[in-house]
């Protein structure tokens, strides 16, 4: 194996994101740095009381997470359950597998997310009644290669023949 396909988290910079009081995280994209093309893997750290992302479902990609340290709560479909170090959770593609991880513990929640990197992907956001469509590059991939990156309220629906 070429060393160009090997990476250590200490070699990568954190990329931080936050929005309001509910969302914040730090991320290192391990899969991308190691040269993976169809498999994503990211290391996340989420502060106490926050989530990395809104409650969402992928229609084109499957995700899984492995908790390294800390504790939290997973929203998965209609269920909510606690998670901590050593738990592995799979999120198959489909609206019934909408998911979110929230740090409900007392320390930073640290976990790995592994995902397929299929493009295009359609994401549904049940809490905010919106839809996202990404083409050219999967979510978590290189945004500069994305040919489509659209988020719309579900109420923006038009008929198939509209405008034809």
UniProtKB/TrEMBL annotation:
Pfam family for this entry, one: Cupin_2
Keywords: Metal-binding
Residue span, Cupin type-2 domain: 43-114
Keyword Metal-binding carried by entry: yes
SUPFAM superfamilies: RmlC-like cupins
Region (Disordered): 1-20
GO molecular function, one term: metal ion binding
Record InterPro entries: Cupin_2, GPI/OXD, RmlC-like_jellyroll, RmlC_Cupin_sf
Position of the signal peptide: none
Biased composition (Basic and acidic residues): 7-20
Top-rank taxon: Bacteria
Record's protein name: Cupin domain-containing protein
Organism: Lujinxingia vulgaris
Classification of source organism: Bacteria, Deltaproteobacteria, Bradymonadales, Lujinxingiaceae, Lujinxingia
């Amino acid at each position: 194996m070429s060393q160009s396909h090997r990476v250590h988290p200490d070699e990568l910079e954190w990329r931080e994101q936050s929005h309001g009081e509910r969302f914040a995280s730090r991320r290192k994209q391990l899969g991308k740095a190691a040269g993976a093309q169809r498999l994503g893997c990211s290391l996340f750290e989420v502060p106490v009381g926050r989530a990395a992302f809104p409650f969402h479902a992928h229609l084109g990609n499957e995700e899984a997470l492995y908790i390294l340290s800390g504790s939290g709560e997973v929203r998965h479909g209609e269920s909510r359950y606690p998670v901590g170090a050593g738990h592995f959770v799979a999120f198959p593609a489909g609206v019934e597998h909408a998911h979110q991880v929230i740090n409900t513990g007392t320390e930073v929640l640290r976990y790995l997310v592994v995902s397929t990197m299929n493009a295009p992907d359609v994401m549904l956001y049940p809490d905010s009644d919106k839809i996202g469509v990404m083409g050219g590059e999967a979510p978590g991939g290189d945004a500069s290669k994305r040919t489509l990156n659209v988020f719309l309220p579900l109420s923006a629906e038009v008929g198939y023949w509209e405008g034809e």
